[in-house]
Design a protein that fits this description.
Layout lengths: L1 E7 L4 E8 L4 E5 L6 H9 L3 E6 L11 H8 L2 E5 L9 E3 L4 E3 L4 E6 L8 E6 L9 E5 L20 H15 L8 E4 L17 E2 H7 L8 H9 L9 H7 L18 H9 L3 E4 L3 H6 L1 E2 L3 E2 L6 H8 L6 E4 L5 H10 L5 E4 L3 H7 L4 E2 L2 E3 L1 H8 L6 E4 L3 H5 L7 E2 L18 E4 L4 H12 L5 E4 L2 H7 L8
Parallel strand pairs: 3-4, 4-5, 5-6, 10-11, 13-15, 13-16, 16-17, 19-23, 20-21, 20-22, 22-23
Antiparallel strand pairs: 1-2, 2-3, 7-8, 8-9, 9-10, 11-12, 14-18
Helix pairs in contact: 3-5, 9-10
Length: 462
């Protein structure tokens, strides 16, 4: 058997290639949209990809089923509860798919979404115990998939929570301890709240240490699983629906073109948004006014989906050589309107110097002084609820970054604003987004709440 996990850090996304080296047949599970890596992997090992399985309609990225089918002729499979605009194979609970001696068996595990499945992997046809189970977003390492995402239209968190309880407590925990667990996401994903940095585990380990796998009643399970979930990014519903539909394919080798200063100016005048993916300190030192800072060293795509709309035309500013990667990350969540990039950032800032701005970043001492002054700023905490509950700057309003776009009416336009997060990454995004939306006097707290606490300043606990 050939078994490979492909992990994408920026989306905390795991996908899998499973094949029988004797028969030469393979299946890819939960692929991302840029599929060249899977095709190359299969070719290196003499495998032909005959099928693509999505464990559910993903909300945090566009899956690569259509690209894979176009490249290989593979069938596309989902749990039997799924319906799609494109031809797909309904995979029944208990169905076995033979790739030669290697066998995949479908297990319906609804709850994160109604159509969610897990995939049992048997190294040999006659083995009674599976080698492992691909759990999609049902069971994570240290957590389970949240049942409260708006992606499952027509279902309540309570309805899905009851399905998830059965899937976790009875079906997955009914597997032998030695079965390996391979989830679709790791730490950082907004599809859960307590995901581990580990990329695989066992049923036995999860039975012992995963809070949601402990014996409990359904009401307690729903309460504990739904409590404290991070705010979901705005684009999740868009991607979950788009994964059901026919859509344009991501072209292999597609490149964003370079734009000169005149083209940048014309595109901006026509409404294009500049996404500056440089480090937040470099951005603060000088950037095109109105650009939004989303550093490429973090959760770039997910964050872009919080502050952009899919139809927004985007101009990319990046560290040298990073422009195409930024465009690819946008395409992974279905944001395909990258019209080009700035090839010479320093030169463009000189040429367009009349459009260059600088970010105001305050130290904790400066923020303390301003809060005590006559023109006190409105302080905005953009962290997630769980972080905010552990302590905050006194008097700060709380709007998690994923909710900021839809809650702008709560942000005053007649006062200075200071945004902060844990360390300064998300607050630079938030401050630049607010400036892009027309808020004039916006700063962020250098070093974030961590720096604030280090000064032994007062902290509020909700």
């Amino acid at each position: 058997m050939y078994f490979a996990q492909h992990y994408l850090d920026c989306l905390s996304h795991a996908s899998y290639v499973i094949g029988d080296e004797a028969s030469g047949e393979a299946v890819v599970v939960d692929p991302r949209r840029d599929v060249a890596e899977y095709l190359a992997d299969a070719k290196r090992h003499g495998l032909a990809i005959v099928g693509v399985i999505n464990t559910h309609f993903h909300a945090d990225f566009l899956a690569g089923h259509l690209e894979m089918a176009a490249a290989t002729g593979a069938w596309i499979g989902y749990g039997a509860a799924a319906t799609t605009e494109y031809p797909s194979r309904a995979l029944a609970d208990g169905e076995r798919i033979a790739l030669g001696d290697v066998v995949l068996q479908i297990m319906a595990t609804p709850g994160h979404t109604p159509e969610s499945i897990s995939v049992l992997v048997f190294e040999h046809t006659d083995e009674p115990t599976p080698y492992g189970v691909l759990t999609g977003d049902a069971l994570f390492i240290g957590d389970v998939g949240r049942p409260d995402l708006l992606a499952s239209i027509g279902f309540t968190a309570d309805q899905l929570g009851r399905q998830l309880y059965d899937s976790i407590q009875h079906k997955l925990m009914g597997l032998p301890d030695e079965v390996r667990v391979f989830p679709a996401h790791g730490a950082g994903s907004a599809c859960g709240k307590n995901l581990s940095t580990e990329l695989q585990s066992t049923i036995g380990q999860q039975r012992l240490f995963n809070y949601a796998c402990q014996p409990m009643g359904v009401e307690q399970f729903i309460a504990i699983v739904t409590a404290g979930q991070p705010a979901a990014p705005e684009y999740f519903g868009y991607d979950a629906i788009l994964n059901r539909k026919n859509r344009d394919l991501l072209s292999a080798g597609r490149q964003a073109p370079p734009l000169d200063a005149a083209a940048v100016a014309a595109a901006r005048a026509a409404g294009a948004i500049v996404i500056d993916s440089r480090d937040h300190q470099d951005f603060a030192a000088g950037h095109l006014r109105g650009s939004i800072n989303i550093p490429a060293d973090g959760r770039f795509a997910e964050t872009a989906g919080m502050v952009l709309q899919p139809a927004d035309k985007v101009i990319v500013i990046a560290a040298p050589g990073g422009e195409q990667e930024v465009a690819t990350r946008l395409a992974r969540i279905g944001f395909d309107q990258t019209i080009g990039y700035v090839p010479d950032v320093e030169g463009a800032l000189v040429t367009l110097q009349h459009e260059v701005g600088h970010s105001s970043r305050l130290t904790p001492a400066q923020l303390t002084d301003r809060m005590a002054g006559p023109d006190a700023p409105w302080v905005l905490d953009v962290r997630n609820a769980g972080e905010y509950d552990q302590g905050s700057v006194p008097g700060a309003a709380h709007i998690p970054l994923p909710e900021l776009g839809r809650r702008l009416t709560e942000v005053p336009s007649n006062r200075p604003i200071v945004a902060y997060c844990a360390g300064g990454w998300r607050s630079s995004v938030a401050a630049s987004f607010l400036r892009n939306r027309g808020y004039g006097d916006v700063s962020d707290l250098a070093g974030g709440f961590t720096a604030w606490q280090a000064t032994r300043a007062a902290v509020s606990v909700s």
